[in-house]
Amino acid sequence: MELHNGSLFWPTTLDGEKTIRGRKEIDPHYDAVIVGGGMSGALTAYTLAKEGLHIAIIDKREMAGGSSSANTGLLQFSNDIMLYELIEQIGEEKAVRFYKLCQEAVDQLKKVADSLPRQVDMIKRKSICYASTKDDVEKLQKEFAALTRHGFPAEYWDEVEMKKHLPFSKAAALVTHGDAEVNPYRFIQGILEHIQQKGVHLFENVEAMEAEEQSDKVMLNTSIGTFSATDIIYATGYDTNPINDKIGSDINRSYAIATEPIDDLSSWEDNAMIWETKRPYFYMRTTVDNRIIAGGLDEDKPEAPQSKEWIDNRAQRIKKELENLFPDLPIKIDCAWGASFGESLDNLPFIGKHPHRDRLYYLLGYGGNGTVYSMLGSHILRDLLLNRPNSDAELVKLERESEKELV
């Protein structure tokens, strides 16, 4: 499955060459083999390596060459489903706990970034979610009430207040604090460099095939040979799962642009991350060199668009949306791409053990908060693999009402 097409921005920002080196020799046994060398796989390896486990990551492409290189790098504790809506769906205690896990994960991501040998441009930011139409004002009021009732840092702006902060005005906006932005490609490369120095084995251009469970281990057959491991973790993102599991998810595609640097972004208050109430939503952020990353226009097709003309058309539509909101900014498109994007049917990620196979685990961070899910998921998987109690695993387990048949 082709996960992205067009001109990607983030790979152009890597300082110097990649320093990771793909390995060829397979050790006799690993504590865990992680299938997928993107954000989920890298963060999981980082977390497990801190426990002294012997880890290997394999990827059928170059590391970070899949969906992660098309990631737009917004890290938020708010989710595609608002807190008050999630409360209605799964109950107050579970919904609030899930939001708290996301909030903690943003802070944990910052700690990971600060530990790396490479600058990854992770900066704490506030987020502004504006009402797409006047009909959405009530949604924001309900969400503000739910967030503040449970201690999440939030402000509510009416139309008059919005005019004080931004060059555009909508009927209302919800402002949340404690989020962050990151250069996702440099972040992953920095993690991989760090964990390789800690002894994690990285295998690029290696395709995983069937996994054969035995009483005390699992044998993973690949294009270069067989890996023996105590456990296998599938962190394959939006790609086809190697053992063809079907879960409650929907793979779509979305579009994004990176503009050329803009001399003056002073009209963009605090370089906040901005999104809207409409679903699917339009979103935007800035970069350390004064570019704008913006995206949206989701389509119900799983594979990345093949037509350059189609991507360019969507890029121009995104540019027009930006110009409507920030008419003072000289916006010129530098890069434009389309990419596959996964969502779960119940708006929660799938993280945990296969319900019928004891040595297979998954970290599938479907949704707009995939990097945050990868962070919190790495801690859940760590506890499951080490037989530590973790009550949060119930929130995101694979066997849920939205689950389809797992083979």
TrEMBL record:
Gene Ontology MF term list: oxidoreductase activity
InterPro entries with a match to the protein in the record: FAD-dep_OxRdtase (IPR006076), FAD/NAD-bd_sf (IPR036188)
Enzyme class, broadest EC rank: oxidoreductase
Enzyme Commission no: 1.-.-.-
Domain of life: Bacteria
Domain FAD dependent oxidoreductase: 31-383
Keywords: Oxidoreductase
Protein's name according to its UniProt entry: FAD-dependent oxidoreductase
